[in-house]
Amino acid sequence: MESSNQKRRFPPPWRAEKVSADCYEVRDANGFRLASVHCRDDLQQWSFGHDHLTSDEARRIAKAIARLPEFMKPRLDFCSREGGDRRWKPSRPYHVALQDWYVRENWDCINALCAYNGIPFDPTGQRINRDGHWCVYEFARQVDAMMFWDKFGGRWMRYNDFFYPDRPDDMPVMKTPPHFEKLSALVTTITSPLA
Question: Which of 32, 127, 147, 158 would you label with 83, given CA atoms 20 to 30 Å apart?
């Protein structure tokens, strides 16, 4: 008898399709239904109708769900560090370096953005002196490291060297928390240190 806990596969590409006037479905490449997103345009004119999604909102949500495999797929240009330092761990293989002065000036903003997006802000403790003073941060998920690298103008680490991958056009970006302007007004405006 096979285990019921065996992992199921849902091969990409996933697609969002409208199956009725009030429902969008997300299906995998085999046609298996992964999600249903319901909407009701005819109720929007009434106060109780605001509890339902419009067809446009449902379509956008279904399309976002269909893009999940694209966001989660490993990007070949963004390799793990694979050693290069004794602090490297297979459980947190992706390392990004930020300039020390930039982290000190923007600590509150960086910490708030990472917390809001669920991205760990974990230093390895490694310091690199190369064209300035750099601090190294570690990540378990490639997509988290990529968003961190992109938002804060970091350096991707490969072994003991800086690596310069091209930014993909379809890369996910960090979301800004509500009232973020108040926090960023208290400290230096958060911009890429390389801008």
Answer: 147
